[in-house]
Request: fold
Amino acid sequence: MLENKKVRAFVWASAAAGLVVAVAGAGAAAATIAAPTKVTAPYAQAAAVVNADGSINRAKGIASVTKPATGRYCVELADKELDVTRLVPSATLQYTSFEYGIRVSMWPDPTCGTRTDTFLVITGMPNKWEDRAFSIVIP
Reply:
């Protein structure tokens, strides 16, 4: 099936990278996370990897993340000129199975103070929101 040598190498490298990330993530969960690491994202206005507890793992252009309720996160942009009604964010869950989902509000939400510089991100299953780590990118 995987006759092409480059394809086999890519599959094995991807599997190894996933294992390293999983092991590193398990170790990071037990450790206290310091200040967020700045990331290199030259084509993004803002980006972040957010832990399930709402702490920022690493980020660019994100002022803060607050967690007003289970499975709900308010992601505040550092650039106050950016307006959530004019942006197209992309968010992905980290380390979870496929039945879980992530939703990003495309308008100012009362949960986050109806602010135009803050996205509401919701994680979990419908009607059963749960705290989940995620990444978000605002191109």
Q: What stands out?
A: DSSP finds one helix and ten strands in the chain. The beta strands are 37-38, 46-50, 56-60, 62-69, 72-77, 90-93, 101-104, 118-125, 128-129, 134-138. The first strand starts at residue 37 and ends at 38. Residues 70 and 96 are 16 Å apart (CA to CA).
